[in-house]
Specification:
The chain is of the alpha/beta class and 224 residues long. The protein contains nine helices and twelve strands. It has two domains: 119 residues, Response regulator (Rossmann fold, 3-Layer(aba) Sandwich), CATH 3.40.50; 94 residues, Winged helix-like DNA-binding domain superfamily/Winged helix DNA-binding domain (Arc Repressor Mutant, subunit A), CATH 1.10.10.10.
């Protein structure tokens, strides 16, 4: 779960939509009071925290998060106005794990979140994904089928990782295009179909783990 503290409704909604499309659960909050109310009942994997907020600003909220034992270890990425070097420095000094300068791209946000989670999650929880006879090492990029290494292109690897990180979840072709190729990619959704086809071939006996959901897209079968 990612908590997004952002008072601009359109930006907040776009952040939540993007995170959900990338396989995360996400909730949005307009201010610090709403955030701390939610923290009473749920601890997120990460908090995306805007500095400029109505009432209590993000720097003050960060100080509170780092002072409280229940929240001191939750990773925080600060969103700062472009060019506000002072806020970046203060935020990092107070324990922020990273920052993004507004306006930032949604795919950059997802990449930063994943990078921070890789640094902050316990090693044993993030090292390897495994479904049936298929294994993917998140650190070395090595993919094994029944113990034998196979060679994938970067796009094939990203497709496989996206599907394996959320087994059972259905991704549309448009979602996969955005997550793997980026928001600026101008190609057609047929590109996804072609890469899925070559990925299945390379996966051999594990190729049918990648299922086609007719009229929607693809998912990784997670029960094999």
């Amino acid at each position: 779960m990612i908590f997004c503290v952002e008072d601009d409704g359109s930006i907040r909604d776009l952040m939540i939509y993007t995170l959900q499309s990338a396989g995360f659960e996400a909730k949005g909050f307009t201010c610090g009071d709403a955030l701390f109310d939610a923290l009473q009942t749920e601890k997120p994997q990460m908090i995306m925290l805007d500095i400029m907020l109505p009432g209590e600003d993000g720097i003050s909220i960060l100080k509170k998060l780092r002072r409280q034992p229940e929240t001191e270890k939750i990773p925080v990425i600060m969103a700062t106005a472009k060019g506000t070097e002072y806020d970046k420095v203060i935020g990092l000094d107070l324990g922020a794990d990273d920052y993004l300068a507004k306006p930032f791209g949604m795919m950059e946000m997802v990449s930063r979140i994943r990078a921070v989670l890789r640094r902050t999650c316990p090693q044993e929880e993030r090292k390897c994904l495994k479904i049936g006879k298929l294994e993917l090492d998140l650190e070395t990029y090595i993919v094994l089928v029944n113990g034998e290494r196979i060679q994938l292109t970067l796009k094939e690897y990203k497709l496989l990782r996206t599907l394996m990180e959320n087994p059972g979840r259905v991704y549309t072709r448009d979602q996969l295009l955005e997550l793997v190729w980026g928001m600026d990619y101008m190609g057609e959704t047929r590109t996804v179909d072609v890469h899925i086809g070559t990925l299945r071939t390379k996966l051999g006996e594990c190729g049918d783990y990648v299922e086609t959901v007719r009229g929607v897209g693809y998912r990784m079968e997670g029960t094999r």
